[in-house]
Amino acid sequence: MRAVVLAEHGEPLELRDVPEPTADPDGVVVETEACGICRSDWHAWQGHGDWVDDRVPTGQVLGHEPVGTVREVGADVETVAVGDRVVVPFSLADGTCPACRAGRQNYCEGATALGFGPAAPGAFAERFHVPAADVNAVHLPEGVSAVAAASMGCRFVTAFEALDATADAGGGDVVVVVGCGGVGLSAVQIAAALGATPVAVDVREAPLELAADIGAAATIDASEVDDPASRVRDRFGGADVSMDALGSTETFRTAVDSLSSGGTHVQVGLTGDDDRGEVALPVDRVVQDDLTVAGSRGMAPRRYDDIFAMVAAGRVDPGALVTDRVALDAVPDRLAAMSEFDTVGVEVVTEF
Ligand SMILES: [Zn+2]
Ligand SMILES: [Zn+2]
């Protein structure tokens, strides 16, 4: 079958013929219907993450935001059947470790990540395998399109978990989102749905226009403003919640500096070669202004019903962030475009 393979870090990705997956006793094989293209794929391709021992090896099939139909079921699987439509969180859990037993499957101690490790070839492929399917395969309700669901394995649930659970954002809160790629735009839409006032910050006009379309109360073009954080403080009295959705010294500081007293920063963006996993924290302000700095990664499968309910009620529409549908052989070029920040919104592979 066809799949997109990380041949060498930073070199063009290759569309290759790879062996068909077969179902482990606890796993299922899923035929891919759609798979979002994400900046995490780009980080993997670039070879980032070695500073936290998380570098994706060459030979890896990428792709971690899939939706599809189950075609083969392992003998021990109890809750998933052939023909079921499923969405799969990128953070695959074993279902048995202390974190999983505490309901924190997105921080599983025995985790593999779909499309990021040899044990879990990804979904930029005609078919892919889901281990521990009773834990990791989430049934998709009728009425949620494949394209809308293609972000629910990663960016959309990451944004939801970060704002709703980690930062407890809600009615009346000013939420500043710095970096309006896929996860940032998702956060803007979700913040609006939670009754908050989203403020979107980016250095590009097109994503800011999209942010305004999907619910941002204000947008700030950081390429035209000396101090975007002071804009947030001047106009809104500061943010109750800030999110760095990109992962750099500059975006982190803009986000944290936007906070008002008692505010919470949640980090979801991972850093690149410039910062290599570390940014400076304004620790005196953290003390003097009672700030909280938190991190958030993915979302546990048991919380998917909360998102499906919001989609069914029309409160969020992940499909509104999708700006293009492409074929599998376009993935190498579309990831290359991310190097120049030349993509807007979410692009989804729909032809395999
Ligand atoms: Zn992703
Ligand atoms: Zn676990």
Descriptors:
single chain; 352 residues; alpha/beta; Quinone Oxidoreductase, Chain A, domain 1; Rossmann fold; 2 domains; seven-stranded mixed beta sheet; six-stranded parallel beta sheet; 12 helices; 17 strands; 27% helix; globular; binds zinc ion; Zn_alcohol_dh
Topology:
Blueprint (H helix, E strand, L loop, with lengths): L1 E4 L8 E4 L10 E10 L1 H8 L19 E8 L11 E3 L3 E2 L5 H4 L10 E2 L13 E4 L2 H4 L1 E2 L6 H4 L5 H12 L7 E5 L3 H12 L3 E6 L2 H9 L4 E4 L6 H9 L2 E6 L4 H9 L1 E9 L15 H6 L3 E4 L8 H9 L9 E6 L3 H8 L7 E6 L1
Parallel strand pairs: 10-11, 10-13, 11-12, 13-14, 14-15, 16-17
Antiparallel strand pairs: 1-2, 3-4, 3-8, 3-17, 4-5, 5-9, 6-7
Helix pairs in contact: 5-6
This protein binds zinc ion (2 copies).
Organism: Halosimplex pelagicum
Protein name: Alcohol dehydrogenase catalytic domain-containing protein
InterPro entries: ADH-like_C, ADH-like_N, ADH_Zn_CS, ER, GroES-like_sf, NAD(P)-bd_dom_sf, Zn_alcohol_dh
